[in-house]
Each structure stands twice: as C-alpha cells, then as structure tokens.
Amino acid sequence: MPNVTMTLDADILRRARRAALERGASLTGLVRAYLEDLVRREGDSRRLAVARLEKIWAGSRAVVGRVTWTRDDLHGR
User: Fold this and answer.
1) If pLDDT is split at 50, 70 and 90, which confidence band does 13 have?
2) Which of 23, 27, 66, 69 shows the smallest number of beta carbons within 10 Å?
3) Would you give the end-to-end CA distance of the chain in angstroms?
4) Residue 17 covered by a domain
5) Angle at 40 (CA atoms; ends 37, 46), nearest 5 degrees
6) Mean pLDDT across the stretch 6-15?
7) Is residue 56 included in any domain, yes or no?
8) pTM (global) more than 0.70
9) Residue 15 located in a structural domain
10) Residue 45: how many CB atoms within 10 A of its CB?
11) Burial group, residue 27, by CB count within 10 angstroms (0-12, 13-18, 19+)
12) Cβ–Cβ < 8 Å for 30, 19
C-alpha cells in the first residue's frame, strides 16, 4: 500500500491518537476507516442520484429527436 504523509496541528494529533487508542485502533487504521467510509458514502450518493434521474427519465414523455446539428452550427462565427 502507498504511504501518505500529513501535517497536523500537535493538539489535533494528540487528540486523534487518544481517540484511536480508545477505539482499540491505530491512528492509521482510524484514518483508513474514515476514508473508506467517505468514499463508500460518496459512491452511494451518486448511485442514488443516478437511480432518481433514471426514474424521472422513465416517467417522462419527452421525445428527443436525432441530432442534426454540427459543432459549427452551434458556434457559428
């Protein structure tokens, strides 16, 4: 696994080490668990948003025709 170097305020570092110790974890384990949870929640949020959009699209009566314009048509100078 790659290593990450961080700069933290001394008080934050002391308190984070204490929090890790109280949870029976290492500081590295605590940070890893937090980041894994963050990434998982972000993925879940995106999947939920896509599912909502797909539901809206499925219920829509909008009809999208064939694209007949070119880039030049859009950016006529």
Assistant:
1) very high
2) 66
3) 52
4) yes
5) 140
6) 96
7) yes
8) no
9) yes
10) 10
11) middle
12) yes
